[in-house]
Inverse folding.
């Protein structure tokens, strides 16, 4: 039987050409698999037909938008996941979602190889291949751009030589990856990190500097899951989509950063993730109200490692699963409402309400009703500071003066 | 000899009354010490004279603004210190600065007790007392409000009964602590955490929602120290002051959060810290450009612990000193220029330039000049993902299906 | 109705006297509760009767040995919990087990106060009281020794004055706490930390220096739970008891350390925990074989924090629960057999066998059958070291010479 | 000019053959560099002459024993560095020491390539190459065994064909790496992880099971540096050598473990490191006495990361340098004497003495002289447990029962 290769197919020039290119390089039949994670663009059926027209022996398309929101974006929201304190892992989250469909297709069609369209210097190749080897260690991975020298120019030539039904228009200056959780843009002039981005780069967000009316929103969570927006029940997907529109209209979620890639280099990235940033901002503050201090302090470290793991393509790793065990437990009480004003590029929480609140008005107030017993503090401070004090006594003993001058 | 108490003196009603109150309670002579950490307000000499008029046997005043900026705010900037990812530790930084002056005064004047005006349910009592016991373990601490039941009403009565030269106007609804690094506000109606702050609460910042022109600024750092603004050399104090004005004018640095106090309760706090937020934002991005990935990842954890320690009043603790050893080393190459647009409440970096940059255009670019050898990636991915892959093989062996359905 | 106090009762002099002492101080009825966590000694029924004879209005006794082993010791084994890398948390584990019974008794008998026999300078008072306030925040805690100045001498006098049925023999020089997981000893001459312990201090272990035959044992685990010893099925309690005997006979599990108490002081402690140390040693090595590297590395940090939390009396805290979520997940594959030689104070693993092993002979071997593709390493090393290399290039660029001399 | 390759030369068969092999493969002149890190064996001059006899154009030998002890072993002692809580990094420490000499030789002789004898599946190839690229990013690395298929059999054939002056005796069953800090052994029959090691495997240590007299030793440290043994001043090298003899005679420092290699596989390793284990054991306990609690707790995490970094070959990385900043500061007060009994494979501390001690007899004692104010504890416990208690009140409020049954 002819060998079979499952290809992660987008419908664009590169992966359309890759169908024939892989067939030529390997002699294998190519099965195209397109997964909709909310990237927008063409109808899935159009994409499916194009794959066949380009030579695929089979083509599968899957609407994975809800699955992507529930199983990938939601854990990121509950982890307040921001790589390098900024980037909500947009592309990093979509890769494992797509990988799962690729592996399922490989098993269904008896393929022993999976192919993807990534280059050899980015993070996505790692995310695809580490993901695949963690779900299906028996599968081999190939990347025509990286492994078979399928450059853009050669792809266009191949396309024309084989009369493939794709427009080979002049390349857009932007290299873009997008899904419902956000959008990543790279482009030549931004590789000079002193250059500022121009308005033309953005699509999910409007200019935050344009004067407009603020938009106030109330987001309700149940155990860390966004369940309603302004009192209207929503799925996770709907919450993201709705906030993409409303937060995007206020210019929220633009990110311009130099980031550390897994392959060891620094790169400059522009992201837009209005819904993601609005949801994480709200979730963080609801945690401030409902999560106990020591748990909250430790969770910050867990969140950071979780974000690094996912960024590094280790979604299906044992450590990721164990961190999820922690995060799920930590979200047990993250239930309540957060009111935010969205305006001028900022989502600002100004109200919180929760049946699970640990904020106790009577302990916090300085007015009538104060129940905090201040006489306890003396003993607390003395013992809390004891180990530092003893260390200080050592200093005195030794004649150190700690720079006090005397 | 009569015993002597050094009192942290602000010039306001509470600490002015405390002079006499402490004298009555303890029979000791009271020495008032006022430290200027940029809180603004009255002239130091006026304050000094009032202390004497209120019964202090001695009164000392110190302009510690530069010292506060250099020795307390600067380490916080180099640590990107944001407690709970938000609060730049404004009050927490000023306490150790004041403590050092109190201890020096106690030694100079032979006092065996230090007094402060804090209540018994906040963080500041801990910061004062843990600080004092770490610098001078032999000193005793007292707090008239907490230990001698000196309530506001009783203080006013005392003031009137003793004809102290202080206006006993009706209490402002706001409880405020401020210094050059920022301003903290608590007030009754905000103790309902569903209530939004009103514009009246703010003083260091203008309303970010008001339409106005953006302000572009270039901040230069040398080894993590801000050394110039728009090419003009500045001291750390000047950098903070200048950015307080410019970032404040754009509404930058407002914070509204529920926070975890050291004494175990949650409280709602409003802060303004325009200069601090602008400087930390710039410093963070310059680190993104100049600090190696693994160091940067680890530093995030160190920063978090540093912020918790300082928030918790452990400025003079052995762990704080050791973390400073790490942070100083990590800032060794944080040298260069950051360009930011300040507008509408946001300070957004859009350009970076550094002789110490680790961003390598030739490795990062996808255009001509690319020097990254993509053939290396295959081996990297395979070995990087090896331990997860082997774990996955165990799963396959065991017949687990990882939820792939088959 | 007369108020009721539940007292943690041991049957010894101090808590026997406390029954009447508390009654006198508070006017409340005292209910004695004794919990058997494997401390050995008298029959529970004897203890129950003595409580009544000493004036308790009710006395409850509970055999909690299995519960203690399953719910408290087992999580510690799965966490490889060693406070300060040494101490298996013996007493710290028993306190929450006892607390649960005290709280249940308080609710059953309508008590509003819980009393315990601890002093005011140790960890156990915190473990009792923090535990009680986390399970039953409405209960008040008292400690006669600390709060009502019930010194040893006064207790003896009280005992004699009231003809209580307890022998008031001269105090043993040792202060001991013990349960099935181990034994803690403090004594006057060891408060000089230069003094070595004498053989007389030990009870669970024989002198490791005495020549004797080694004992080889195979311990089997299922998901981190010890389920068999030398092929014989055991409960967790039996595993601990059996290894207490066999490892104890070889002098295993003696610990002599200066430790950091929660109340800020350092103390010198002698522990014996033969079963605990043998089980943790075996469990650790089985993890080495069955847990993926990154998970294993992270788990070490989690273990340390888990041990600190439990030592600090925060067994019932939200963070502890979330760390348990992590640890449970991490133990999912810790299944297999560990062979150990026990001799001369050491438990040394020398064989491991597991169906869940991640050790792959074919990848590890340097002999025939090697399946590791060494050609992958070049790319791995190059990219793995890339970020350090780029940082080094900056150094070269800047003329630094890294101390190479040239 | 002919290109030049610097080869890490051991004097053994593999690297002797590599001289000619590299010359043939690359056409370059080979410069042999042998570094003595205490591995014992032949005289350096003999080794130098053999290199020349085998075709090297230059041969350099360096006695780096003191340098290795001071600059590599000492930081490991101060970090209590034990990879996976067991392995004192023996080989991992020697690689950067050797690398520094290789790079210096390459610069001196104008070489553009460095060669080493490692295979392609171990850690050492990474340690060599990551080290070299961090010190001299312009140098290229090659490994004949890995890159030019120089197998053992082919090496023997080459040796005979070229009449090289090396004995090509039948290969020892053991693959060994050793230096003054310890010894690592791998061998075929131990690749079955159920097999126990045999006595024949060990060389630095005698059988711990053999009855013999205990050996008591006092080790003195100054700021974490071992400076005297039994009162006799020593260099770091002498301390290690002396304790290798004395602790080795007692069978101390044998390690048998399954470990996680950087290349993603698990391997089974046997180590002996008597001096290292004795010194680290003593150093740890002196830290228990002299380091403040919070610093000690945090240092444990730093130690673990430090060990992982060094194991992973990142000795010269920026993160390693910053962690060293922390560790140096933490060792500032680690001064004093530790008395240990060494016997039966165990080094057991039984006495500590320090002018920098934080152990305070008067605070710790339960006897006369106790200065700890127990009345402080009540307030401490109440506030220390406050956040957990408030979380518990939420539970009560919600009708949860925490499994208490009622």
């Amino acid at each position: 039987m002819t060998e079979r290769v499952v290809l992660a197919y987008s419908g664009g020039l590169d992966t359309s050409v890759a169908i024939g290119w892989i067939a030529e390089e390997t002699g294998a039949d190519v099965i195209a698999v397109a997964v909709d994670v909310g990237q927008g663009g063409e109808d899935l059926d159009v994409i499916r037909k194009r794959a066949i027209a380009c030579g695929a022996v089979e083509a599968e398309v899957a609407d994975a938008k809800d699955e992507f929101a529930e199983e990938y974006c939601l854990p990121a929201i509950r982890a307040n996941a921001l790589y390098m304190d900024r980037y909500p892992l947009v592309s990093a989250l979509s890769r494992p979602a797509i990988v799962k469909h690729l592996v399922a297709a490989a098993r269904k069609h008896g393929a022993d190889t999976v192919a993807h369209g990534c280059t050899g210097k980015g993070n996505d190749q790692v995310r695809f291949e580490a993901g695949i080897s963690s779900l299906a260690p028996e599968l081999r991975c190939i990347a025509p751009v990286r492994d078979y020298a399928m450059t853009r120019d050669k792809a266009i030539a191949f396309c024309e030589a084989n009369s493939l039904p794709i427009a080979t228009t002049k390349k857009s200056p932007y290299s873009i990856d997008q899904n419902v959780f956000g959008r990543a843009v790279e482009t030549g002039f931004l590789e000079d990190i002193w250059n500022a981005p121009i308005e033309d780069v953005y699509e999910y967000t409007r200019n935050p500097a344009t004067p407009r009316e603020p938009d106030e929103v109330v987001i309700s969570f149940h155990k860390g899951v966004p369940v309603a927006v302004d009192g209207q029940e929503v799925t996770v997907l709907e919450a993201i989509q709705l906030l993409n529109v409303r937060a995007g209209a206020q210019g929220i979620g633009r990110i311009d950063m130099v980031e550390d890639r897994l392959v060891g280099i620094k790169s400059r990235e522009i992201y837009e993730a209005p819904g993601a940033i609005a949801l994480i901002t709200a979730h963080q503050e609801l945690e401030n109200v409902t999560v106990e201090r020591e748990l909250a302090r430790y969770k910050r470290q867990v969140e950071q490692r979780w974000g690094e793991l996912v960024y590094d393509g280790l979604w299906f790793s044992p450590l990721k699963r164990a961190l999820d065990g922690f995060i799920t437990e930590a979200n047990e009480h993250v239930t309540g409402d957060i009111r935010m004003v969205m305006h001028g590029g900022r989502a600002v929480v100004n109200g919180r309400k929760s049946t699970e609140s640990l904020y106790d008005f009577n302990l916090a107030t300085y007015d009538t009703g104060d129940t905090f017993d201040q006489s306890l503090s003396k003993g607390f401070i003395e013992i809390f500071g004891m180990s530092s004090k003893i260390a200080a006594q050592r200093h005195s003993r030794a004649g150190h003066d700690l720079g006090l001058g005397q």
